């Protein structure tokens, strides 16, 4: 079994999954990599090892049947939405291992209220909070909190929708008036069902970074740190996006901090999920705030970050198929090894993103850009190959990535040197990633 070739099904088709496919392709254990739709660049990376899942497969039941027919050995799920909808349950039901949590465990990302209640129940450090399904009660709570001294937290309070809102359901209100407006907006229907319930949180001041871990249900290990850039424009201006760039490791990472997070957050959470009867398998992605009182959880995601994945995987020394398979089978034996190099990625997005943008513009210069250095990799987040040319086909379009660098400055220089070769008038990017 050990050296048998594995057939893998990879779910998702963005930049994160292109990076996953690149890593999987390099594993000597790979038989065939089956991929969902719409990923020309990924198919090119995987080459003769690739297999495209037929368009006609629409439901998770059909996908499970496909896995049986195609003798899939392991399913790796990139994005959160299929996990929250229960893809892992459907595929595990046909006895195929899945790297990714069950629907019940996926609530850690799918419901902020549920996640906060678990943290509270098991004494895992996070911001003080209250939950509401009624706007008037939420407003009364906020008024009381302002009376009772929220000013000590710089006068700020945080309003969040309960459900998935693609990173847009969070408002940091700077005063009472804007807090009340944010509550009205959240329940206005703009976020659909996600806005039916609200979480109101104490504002935590401090430095923020991302901490990743891999869990097999009962054992969890550190899987790297990253710094991301959420806002659209330089200097953290503009709207929140899915992420405009990232680097790894984060500047805050130290052995002592890793140990603190392992002891106060990671291990207690994995144990809590077991006790709740929903052992957590897959990647845990913690948004961490380093406050004066120590590391606290801001949010939990149930998957790799995008674009954080693009800067962590290049540093991973383990065979990814073997590692993810061990975790999916509840038997994570190998020690996760990340090298000391620095990786950095800059997102090129279509002008207008994260609001409305055009698709279909042509991107030139990619061949030349890719030849600049063996340590430069371009992961495609949203492109389509038409008559031999890549065209923009999404909001976030390319991830220009520098890997194997000694310092952040070198990584930054390389990534921006690559960008200089790319001719795409209809795109934009931040110029301050890693500054
Ligand atoms: P979330 O989607 O919950 O991660 O929130 C998005 C962003 O809002 C986070 O990355 C933080 O920058 C900020 N944020 C969320 N909750 C808090 C909080 N309680 N205190 C301070 N900042 C927060
Ligand atoms: N880049 C943030 C995320 O993937 O949620």
**Low-confidence parts:** none
How far from one another are the termini?
47 Å
Mean pLDDT: 94
Query: What percent strand?
Result: 25-35%
The proportion of residues forming helix, as a percent range, comes to 25-40%
Largest sheet: 9 strands, antiparallel
Ions, cofactors, ligands: which are bound? adenosine monophosphate, glycine
General form = globular
Rg calc: 21 Å
Structural class: alpha+beta
Per DSSP E runs of 2 or more residues, the count of β-strands stands at 22
Number of helices: 14
Output the keywords:
alpha+beta, 435 residues, single chain, 14 helices, binds glycine, 9-stranded antiparallel sheet
Task: Tell me what you see in this structure.
It is a single chain. This protein has 435 residues and is of the alpha+beta class. Helices cover 30% and strands 28% of the residues. The chain contains 14 helices and 22 strands. It has helices at 15-25, 40-46, 60-69, 80-84, 87-92, 107-110, 112-121, 135-147, 176-187, 255-275, 308-312, 320-328, 366-370, 408-420, and strands at 6-11, 30-35, 50-52, 74-77, 98-99, 129-132, 157-161, 170-173, 198-202, 207-216, 220-228, 231-233, 237-240, 245-248, 281-291, 294-301, 342-350, 376-380, 383-386, 389-392, 396-405, 427-428. Strands 10, 11, 14, 15, 16, 17, 18, 21 and 22 form a nine-stranded antiparallel sheet that branches. A five-stranded parallel sheet has the order 3-2-1-4-5. A four-stranded antiparallel sheet has the order 6-9-7-8, with helices on both faces. Helix 8 (135-147) runs antiparallel to helix 9 (176-187). Bound molecules: adenosine monophosphate and glycine (GLY). Residues 228, 242-243, 301, 305-306, 308 line the site of glycine. The site of adenosine monophosphate has 14 residues, from strand 7, strand 8, strand 9 and strand 16.
